[in-house]
From TrEMBL:
This is ABC transporter permease. InterPro entries: ABC2_TM (IPR013525), ABC_2_transport (IPR000412), Nod_factor_ABC_transporter (IPR051784). It is found in: Membrane. PANTHER family: NODULATION PROTEIN J (PTHR43229). The chain crosses the membrane at residues 20-37, 49-73, 94-119, 125-150, 157-177, 213-232. Pfam families: ABC2_membrane. Its main location: membrane. It is a multi-pass membrane protein. The lineage of its organism: Bacteria, Bacillati, Actinomycetota, Actinomycetes, Pseudonocardiales. Residues 9-205 form the ABC-2 type transporter transmembrane domain.
Length: 238
């Protein structure tokens, strides 16, 4: 049942034009643009600094923004309510959506990493395992937040809030601009957000080849657990 549900959700996501725009086209455009065009000062090789930010953006786009919008409109059109009336348990409904997110992120990561290698990206081998762990934790944190948002308010509100948060976290959440370069307390706030924790952890793992440390891992775990616990109490099926 889990395999059938997650594969269905993944196929629907891959057929959705807005999902593909968020999940693949925008990250690919940023990866190529920031690597080849010197619009932002970055250390050489530029691609090494760009890849962690783009991977963090891809995870946020698929697991949070795309998930929240899809879940919100599925509730609006009664899809979730009809699924809940079948033999599919509620926990499996949520697990299927999260498993589909993992599948989508796996596709994203494969495409982006292949393109980055073509742009002469050579990541340190010592950091690859940590990067995989951070991506999985990022999927859990952002996926839980996406379900919380998409299952708590009306679809039109979800659409506006999810896209607004995407832009805010992209530029002020430690993704495009590292937390250390953000002015004043914004840097401290960014490192406590899942976007900043994921991006900073990936930079440490994929640029320096070192363990990301306890802070980004704890931040992602805490956000995932809190969002999941709140979702259990607040998510509605209609």
């Amino acid at each position: 049942m889990l395999a059938a549900q997650s594969s269905t959700e993944l196929r629907l996501a891959l057929r959705n034009g807005e999902q593909l725009l968020l999940a693949l086209l925008i990250p690919i455009a940023l990866l190529v643009g920031l690597t080849l065009l010197e619009v932002v000062p970055l250390p050489e090789p530029r691609v090494a600094s760009v890849v962690p930010a783009v991977l963090a953006l891809a995870v946020m786009s698929a697991a949070f923004t795309g998930q929240a919008i899809a879940f919100g409109f599925d509730r609006r059109y009664g899809v979730v309510r009809r699924l809940a009336a079948t033999a599919l348990p509620r926990w499996l409904l949520v697990a299927g959506r999260l498993a589909a997110v993992l599948g989508l992120v796996a596709v994203q990561t494969a495409v982006l990493c292949a393109l980055a290698v073509a742009l002469d990206w050579r990541p340190p081998a010592a950091g690859l395992g940590w990067a995989v762990l951070l991506v999985l934790l990022g999927c859990a944190a952002f996926g839980s937040l996406g379900i919380l948002l998409g299952g708590s308010v009306r679809a039109e509100v979800v659409l506006a809030v999810a896209n607004l948060l995407w832009f805010v976290l992209l530029f002020a959440g430690g993704i495009v601009i590292p937390a250390a370069q953000l002015p004043g307390p914004l840097g401290t706030i960014a490192t406590s957000l899942p976007s900043g924790a994921l991006a900073e952890g990936l930079r440490t793992a994929l640029v320096d080849g070192r363990a990301p440390g306890l802070h980004p891992v704890l931040v992602l775990v805490i956000w995932a657990v809190l969002a999941a616990l709140v979702s259990v109490r607040t998510v509605r099926l209609r």
